[in-house]
Every structure is written in C-alpha cells, then in structure tokens.
Amino acid sequence: MQMSKPILLGLTFLLAGVLPGEERADAEQRPNFLFIIADDQSPFDLKIYESSSDLETPVIDRLAAQGMTLDGAYHMGSWSGAVCTPSRHMVMSGRTLWHLPKNGVRGMKKNPLCPTDLAENTLAAVFNRAGYDTMRTCKIGNSYGAANKQFTVCHDKTSRGASDEDGSAWHAEQVLNYLDQRAESGDGDPFFIYYGFSHPHDPRWAKEDLLKKYGADNNVVPEKANPNSPHLPENYLPAHPFPHGHPGLRDEVKVQGVMERRDEPTIRNEIGRQFACGENIDVQIGRVLERLESMGELDNTYVVYTADHGMAIGRHGLQGKQNLYEHTWRVPLIVKGPGIDAGSRAQGNVYLLDVLATLCDLAEIPAPPTSEGISFVPVLEGEAGIVRDVLYGAYCGGTKPGMRCVRRGDWKLIKYDTLDGQVHETQLFNLSHNPSELIGEHHDEAVIALTGHTPEAHETNLAGDPRYAEQLAQMEALLLEEMGRLEDPYRLWDQK
Ligand SMILES: [Ca+2]
Ligand SMILES: [Ca+2]
Fold it and tell me: Residue 85's closest CA among 140, 33, 152?
C-alpha cells in the first residue's frame, strides 16, 4: 500500500515528536548562522587583539563590541605545509589533528583513526538534516572537498585579485545574491551561510585606494620604508635564529613581494598589503551585515568571525604560517548573537575544531558522534571562562617529527626536532610577562633600533634558565601526555 503525502508528512512530524503547527512556530524562531572565515590572518593584525595595529576594521570592531571576543582561540596544527588543509578539515568535522581523513604520513591513503562516513557528519550535512538551508562561498583547494560538497548552494572560487570582480567583493556578491533569492522566494527556513574569503592569503593583490592608505605597493618595494606603511611588530626579527625544518618552503622563500627578504621596507610593504586586503574583507563583511539588518534577520543570526590560522610576515624573522608562535598558532575569534553579552571577552581555550559542536549547541541540534570538539557555549553565555586547561599544537609539514607546543595557563613550551636531528631546540615562555614570545635576538641593539621596543630582561626564552627548571620539566611531561592522548604518531628526540 502506498501512503499518501499528508499521512507521510504526519508520520514525519510524529517521529520528530512535534505537531506540524509547532514545527512551523519553532522554525520561525531558530537562529541563523553566518560563519565568516578569512584565509591567513593573525589575531594580532586586528586592533581588538593588538591595540597598536595600524589595520582599521570598523565592522569587525563593531562585531566585537556587540558580542564576545575570545583571546585563547587556536587551530591545533598541521602535518602539511598547507596549514589550511588540516585546519579546514577540523572546522568542518570537529575532529582532532591526528583523527582526520589523512594525517600527512606519506603513502597513507586512509587514516585508520578516522571514520569512513565522516563527510556525512560535517557542518553542512548536519545543518541540512536539521532543516537549515546551507550556502557556501570560499576559495578552492587546500580544504575538505567532501565536506564542502554537502552545502546545498556552493559558489567557490579562489578570488584573490585586486579588482572587485576577482577579489573579496566576489565572495560578498555570492552571499548577497543568495540572500536576495531567499527574500524573493519567501523562504522561511533558517540559514547557515559559510562566508569564506580567499584573502589576505598571498599573493596579496590589494586594491589601489587601500594600498595607498597603508603605504604599500603590489609590485615595487621601496628602498626606504614608506612612512605610511604599518610599523614593524615588536617581535620582528631579520632572521629566525635556527632552521625551522622546512628547506625551500614556498611561504618562506617564494611569496611574491617578499621572497627571501626580511628587511624593513619589504616587511612593512607586505604588512601594508596584508592590511589593505584585511580592510577590504572588513568592508565586504559590512555589506552582508547591512543586508541582513535590512531583511530583519540580523538580530536572530549568530555571526562568527575567524581565520583558518595566523601568520608571521616578519614576526620572529618568519614569513609564513608554518610555526607555533602565538601569532600563527592562534586565530581571531569573535561571536555575536542572541544571548551573548555585548563587549564581552573571555580566554576560552578553544580550538577551531570546537566550532561544529558549539554551533550545533547554539542551534539546539545534537553534534554528530564523530565530533571531538567541546561546545564553548558556556563561555559565550558567561558561565565559564575556559573549556579546557591544556592546549596542544603541532607542526610537521616539513622534516619530521617537526615542532610541538603545549600551553597551560601562562606557560608555553615549544620544541623543535627538525632536519633529521640537526635542530633540537626548546623554548619556554611565560605569556603574561612575555606575550610576544621575545627571544634573545630581540635584545640585539640593531633589532631594537628597528622595532623601537626595548625588551625587559625577562622577556626571553626561559628554557635555559635554571630558575624555571621545574616549570620546564612539568611542561615537557604535559606535552608528552598530550601527544599520547591525541595519538600523535611521532616522538621528539628527548621523549621516551
Ligand atoms: Ca590559510
Ligand atoms: Ca529552504
């Protein structure tokens, strides 16, 4: 016997435990989501994280003023030079670094620590099943293709040019068009929009007016730094003191406009380009928020702003994203929406992989069983300051085992085991006394002359200081414990 449509519908609602009328009322109140992700942006680019930054982002500042800023937001790391790839897999799936479909081990087709049906349990798939309309725009590549395909509407393109047609405005147009179509069709379902940018990732082809504002040029680096270009960050160095294990890495030696140079005019010009791209992103976010407001949707929308990972551009003498200093391991994270106090701030201690569990929690839908993230809704609602005590980071896209770090409270340990045993380095920082992770080289007079920052004696790597031997031993033990817990397949030279 074939059941008629009304009977089928009735059954569906009965199974869901609600009556058709109730379902409708609920649907009208369910929150929307606008998840915004920049490609390669250090939190310290933004004034809300580094008040001395020259980057102007009035829209992002307003988001922060209306919502919560998280100070302890991290991506867990990468087993690939393309840090985007694991980072975006973690955002989509809520899986930890070594439990993703791949783990960077050469020749491994499938990671046995990853369930085979993961794509059906990623962000868009979960929200589709919960009755959301899902839409995505972002760059193409270095991403999680099987998860991206789950979005009902998807307009991806690597839009990294200096024009509106081929730059960040293109991504904005995709979202605005989608919102127009929704309005025209009178669609009342809640939406989940994944609004990704291709910038400020290099090559940082920025718009002329913004380049001018930030004293930068897309093609020519001046001999003397342009006085209108952003100042050097206080943790700038002309070179990193030891190899970080990635000979010939593209991001360190082949980025257009920088190449192998770390001199002041080059770095300030490149930061100017980064900021010009960053301000354009801010403008494009503003256009979408304005549209949501005029549609009457903004108050019922959770807006998340983040980046897939941070970036060096001269900090510690590095240029790329392949390190575990705070400027690169951390990400910006701002959340605004119903129930979140305006202008609030919290440490959080969250990873990007917690986003899936958190957004599910806000939508009152169960997170998929494959998610390993922790919902930070208690932080957003002001009931908790942090969701975990210990944070772990890994980078081994170059030589193995690579770099590892661990943070607990103000203490942070970074270890380097690279170039097949040629580099064995340990750094211990107290981030409350030395938030920029300054090291011995930052005390050099030639460096001070460039940065204008004279560090205090304690603003340095404390790993060799006998006064902190016990602290160091504790952090070493903690790192090993985290590596075991998270099933890190490698061990460092001095670990048993
Ligand atoms: Ca990236
Ligand atoms: Ca719909």
Answer: 140
76 C-alpha to ligand 1 centroid (Å) = 13
**CA distance linking residue 383 with residue 412, whole number of Å:** 26
Q: Choose among 100, 75, 42, 83: nearest CA to 396.
A: 83
- Using the mean position of ligand 1's atoms as its centre, give its distance from the Cα of residue 159 in Å: 13
What is the spatial distance between Cα 333 and Cα 393, in angstroms, rounded to a whole number? 17
69-110 pLDDT, tens digit per residue, is 999 999 999 999 999 999 999 999 999 999 999 998 888 889
With beta carbons less than 8 A apart as the criterion, state whether 111 and 83 touch: no
Expressed in angstroms and rounded, the spacing between residue 328 Cα and the centre of ligand 1 is 11
Sheet holding 402-408, edge to edge: 77-78, 390-395, 402-408, 411-418, 423-430
Does the pLDDT value for residue 411 go beyond 80?
yes
**Residue 97: which residues within 8 A CB-CB, separation 6 or more?**
76, 77, 78, 79, 86, 90, 103, 394, 486, 488
Q: If you measure from the C-alpha of residue 213 to the centroid of ligand 1, how many angstroms do you get, rounded to a whole number?
A: 25
Name the closest ligand to CA 197: 1
Among all bound ligands, the one having the nearest atom to the CA of 308 is 1
Give 87 Cα–ligand 1 centroid separation in angstroms: 8
Number of residues that this document lists for the chain: 496
pLDDT at 12 exceeding the cut of 70: no
Alpha-helical runs (H) found in 113-161: 123-129, 145-148
Amino acid type, 202: D
- Say which residues have a Cβ less than 8 Å from residue 386's Cβ, sequence separation at least 6: 72, 346, 347, 348, 349, 379
243 CA → ligand 1 middle, Å: 22
Starting from the CA of residue 307, give the closest ligand: 1
In this structure, are residues 130 and 139 in contact, taking their beta carbons and an 8 Å threshold? Answer: no
Span 428-436, mean pLDDT?
Answer: 98
Distance 28 CA to ligand 1 centre (A): 35
State in Å: Cα 352 to ligand 2 middle: 28
Ligand 2 centre to CA of 384 (Å) is 35
* Encoded tokens for 245: 């294990």
Ligand whose nearest atom lies closest to the CA of 27: 2
How far away, in angstroms, is 26 Cα from ligand 2 center?
15
Rounded Cα distance between 482 and 474, Å, is 12
Q: How close is the Cα of 157 to the center of ligand 1, in Å?
A: 15
Computed over its alpha carbons, how large is the radius of gyration of the chain? Answer: 23
Residue pLDDT, tens place only, 326-372: 999 999 999 999 999 999 999 999 999 999 999 999 999 999 999 99
309 CA from centroid of ligand 1 (Å):
6
Evaluate whether 322 touches 393 at the Cβ level (below 8 Å).
no
Domain architecture of the chain: domains with CATH? 31-389 (3.40.720.10)
Beta bridge partners of 334: 69, 305
